[in-house]
C-alpha cells in the first residue's frame, strides 16, 4: 500500500458483511478493489479461433471446460476458475449471456482475469449480494 494513503480509511457498514451487526474499518485501498484482486488472480490473453470463440465455456461466471489445443488451453486458462474481468471490464455479478456478449463483441486478442473458484466463493459467501450489485462497476474502461 502506498504510504501516502495509509491514513485513508473506508468505513464498511453492517450491510456489507452477511450476518454482521457491527461496522468495521478497512484501509481504503483494500476494499472493494482487493475484494477482486490479489495474489490469486491471473490475467491471461487469449486469441479467438476462426469461429470467433475463445476456447473455454463457463456457467455462472465459472470456467467449466476448455477446448483442446485452443489459445485458452495453451495460454493457461484453467477450469474451476471464475471470470473477474474481460478486457478490463468487471464481469463479477453479470449473467452468462452478458459476459458472452462482451466476449463476442471484443476484438481478438481478449484479455481475461480469473481467480480460483474456491477463493472466489469464499470471498463472496461472506459478502451481501446487495452490496455486490450496488457497488460493482461494470463500465467499459477507457483504453
From TrEMBL:
Superkingdom of origin: Eukaryota
InterPro entries in the cross-refs: APP-Binding (IPR051230), PDZ (IPR001478), PDZ_sf (IPR036034)
Keyword NADP: no
Alphabetically ordered keywords of this record: Repeat
SMART domains named among the record's database cross-references: PDZ (SM00228)
Pfam families named in the record: PDZ (PF00595)
Domain PDZ: 43-118
Gene Ontology, cellular component aspect: cytoplasm; plasma membrane
Protein name stated in the entry: Syntenin-1 like protein
Organism placement in taxonomy: Eukaryota, Metazoa, Ecdysozoa, Arthropoda, Chelicerata
Amino acid at each position: 500500500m502506498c504510504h501516502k494513503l495509509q491514513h485513508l480509511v473506508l468505513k464498511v457498514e453492517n450491510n456489507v458483511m452477511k450476518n454482521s451487526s457491527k461496522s468495521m474499518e478497512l484501509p481504503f485501498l483494500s476494499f472493494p478493489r482487493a475484494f477482486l484482486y490479489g495474489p490469486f488472480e491471473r490475467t491471461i490473453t487469449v486469441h479467438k479461433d476462426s469461429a470467433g470463440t475463445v476456447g473455454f465455456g463457463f456457467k455462472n461466471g465459472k470456467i467449466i471446460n476448455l477446448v483442446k489445443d485452443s489459445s485458452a488451453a495453451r495460454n493457461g486458462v484453467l477450469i474451476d476458475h471464475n471470470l473477474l474481468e474481460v478486457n478490463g471490464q468487471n464481469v463479477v455479478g453479470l449473467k452468462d449471456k452478458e459476459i458472452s456478449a462482451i466476449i463476442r463483441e471484443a476484438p481478438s486478442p481478449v484479455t481475461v482475469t480469473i481467480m480460483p473458484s474456491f477463493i472466489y466463493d469464499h470471498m463472496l459467501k461472506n459478502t451481501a449480494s446487495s452490496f455486490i450489485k450496488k457497488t460493482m462497476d461494470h463500465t467499459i474502461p477507457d483504453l
